[in-house]
Amino acid sequence: MATSSVPESSMAEFDSSSVGSDYAEIIVLRHGETAWNADRRIQGQLDVELNDAGRQQAALLGDRLSKEPKISLVYSSDLARAYETAQIIAARCGGLKVVTDVDLRERHLGDLQGLVFGDTAKLNPKAHQAFVSHETCQEIPGGGESRDQLHQRCTSSLQRIGNKHKGEQVVVVSHGAVIETLDKQASPDGRSVRYVLNASVNIFHVYDDGKWTVKSWGDVSHLNQTGSLQSDFGRDEKSG
User: Fold this and answer.
1) Residue pLDDT, tens place only, 10-43
2) Please, which pLDDT band fits residue 224 given cuts at 50, 70 and 90?
3) Which residues in 101-157 belong to E strands, given as ranges?
4) Cα dist from 179 to 24, 154, 191, 193, 196, whole Å
5) If both were cysteines, with which of 27, 37, 104, 123 could 234 make a disulfide (CB 3.0 to 4.6 Å apart)?
6) Is 135 designated active site?
7) Is position 31 annotated as part of the catalytic site?
8) Mean pLDDT of the 56-75 span
């Protein structure tokens, strides 16, 4: 079972010189903002590109990460909003390679995809009830994944990356529900779900024996400095 350590501060400190040989330090980022995030429209695995604010957020992330010279590689979901974020970051970090992994995609939300979250109960009550169900095996009508399926997919991906990059520091660009799921895997004490803001920095230590720790969570200080931090939208898995 995974175990966790809760960081004393949400301020992410990058120091790859201190990465141990028995784990990988994985900087997990949520993609920049999209117009659908701003509208609270459910994206799921629909391929929505970044808006101008999202591209600015990605650039700020890249500028921040460029101060860390020892990042080995950038992994990304293949969905456009994540991949473009990753490409912008990689370019600002000296042209790092970007490797796509479909297992880092957002949760497939079936018939809810494309709907504004506040309208789902009215427009598709069956799919809405499946989404809010506490049953982790509950799939969403229209090909949507259960939470168990999402968990298996994305935690396996991060473990594979960790096993491949022990002693290294790598970046992963993914999505809100995925990152929430990774946090749960590293937090078997069952603490409350923590929101995942667009362009936030979350640092995991992944060991090859299945132990994960969270070094830092939810850092958006790079956005605060320029007034680019959103107030409410794009906060969780509802907008993808």
Assistant:
1) 445 555 557 888 999 999 999 999 999 999 999 9
2) confident
3) none
4) 17, 9, 15, 10, 7
5) 37
6) no
7) yes
8) 94
